[in-house]
Design a protein that fits this description.
This protein is an alpha+beta fold. It has a single domain, classed as Hotdog Thioesterase (Thiol Ester Dehydrase, Chain A). Helix content is 22%, strand content 39%. The chain is built from 3 helices and 6 strands; from the N terminus they run ααββαββββ. Strands 1-2-4-5-6-3 form a 6-stranded antiparallel β-sheet, covered by helices on one side. A hairpin with a 5-residue loop joins strand 5 and strand 6. One of its GO terms (molecular function) is fatty acyl-CoA hydrolase activity.
Length: 152
């Protein structure tokens, strides 16, 4: 992947501050583990409270974490005064969300001034430590500027 150009040298601090304000990530036990220009990783342990009726991680939780990974990947490239909003995404569930922990990676595919496209992958890790791709996402993120009350 080509190096991404950042608009704000303090992008990592800005991304981490915004992530910390996102209560849903705390609710599901997700942590921001890697922040680089145009790429974000979020990790979380398995929790029975987040499963569907068959004991797999619920698709809504997978979708939520991938949306955040893709959104923050886009946000990392935005100007300091911008906020990010998801305007569309498509989720492909490839395998049941079964594992001891999960990794959600978002990467910018197409940067832009108004709309940024990002792709995400969700991996499940079992007891043997091997990663299994369980879902993919493509999302469109909007660069929001000049709106009162919208930060990050």
């Amino acid at each position: 992947m080509a190096a991404m150009l950042v608009s704000d040298i303090d992008f990592e601090e800005r991304v981490r501050a915004s992530f910390a304000r996102q209560k849903v990530m705390a609710t599901i036990g997700a942590e921001l583990t890697q922040v680089t220009p145009g790429m974000i990783e979020i990790e979380m342990p398995f929790s029975e409270e987040l499963t569907q009726q068959h004991g797999f991680l619920h698709a809504g939780v997978i979708s939520t974490a991938l949306d955040s990974a893709c959104g923050y990947a886009a946000y990392s490239l935005m100007p300091a005064d911008a906020a990010v909003l998801t305007i569309e995404f498509k989720l492909n569930l490839l395998a049941p969300g079964r594992g001891e922990r999960f990794l959600f990676r978002g990467s910018v595919t197409k940067p832009g001034r108004t709309i940024i496209v990002a792709d995400g992958q969700a991996y499940a890790f079992g007891g043997n430590g091997e990663a299994k791709l369980v879902a993919t996402m493509t999302g469109s993120m909007m660069v929001v500027q000049g709106r009162e009350g919208m930060e990050g």
